[in-house]
């Protein structure tokens, strides 16, 4: 379903907003012949893995992501099994929002939007934006397209 709700001209993030964020590099310690080797991996997180969303506010029936929300799992660094990320010591860690709307809140927490920056793998990557479809403006209904005086279609 298209995103029809926006905040500050950006689409809001929900569990069903088809948001994806890709970060690089996610440098993880990877097994090597002479010991762990730090190797950069791409890292991907999706809004379908949203956690800590707003309890009472939904958009099209789906939970809304706010300031403290995260994407519970990120993928791509699974091979870094010799100690995980160089900063987080984890693989497949959560992705967290760095930016959000400063003036629109739900349940007292700032609302997350498309293009807001996120950190992946428990803060083991540089910040990257969340990409998702834009807000789609729905067209007017047929009855609104007629002249209110004569009932003829508007031209």
Automatic annotation (TrEMBL):
Residues 70-91 are annotated as: Disordered. The lineage of its organism: Bacteria, Pseudomonadati, Myxococcota, Myxococcia, Myxococcales. This is DUF4150 domain-containing protein. It holds the Pfam family Tox-PAAR-like. It comes from the Bacteria.
């Amino acid at each position: 379903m298209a995103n029809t709700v926006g905040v500050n001209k950006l689409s809001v993030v929900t569990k069903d907003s088809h948001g994806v964020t890709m970060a690089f590099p996610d440098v993880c310690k990877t097994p090597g012949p002479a010991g762990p080797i730090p190797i950069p991996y791409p890292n991907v997180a999706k809004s379908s893995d949203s956690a800590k969303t707003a309890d009472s506010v939904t958009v099209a029936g789906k939970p809304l992501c706010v300031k403290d929300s995260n994407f519970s799992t990120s993928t791509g660094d699974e091979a870094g099994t010799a100690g995980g990320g160089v900063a987080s010591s984890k693989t497949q860690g959560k992705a967290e929002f760095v930016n959000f709307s400063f003036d629109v809140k739900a349940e007292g927490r700032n609302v997350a939007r498309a293009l807001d920056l996120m950190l992946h793998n428990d803060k083991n990557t540089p910040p990257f934006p969340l990409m998702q479809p834009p807000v789609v403006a729905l067209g007017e209904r047929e009855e609104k397209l007629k002249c209110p005086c004569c009932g003829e279609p508007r031209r």
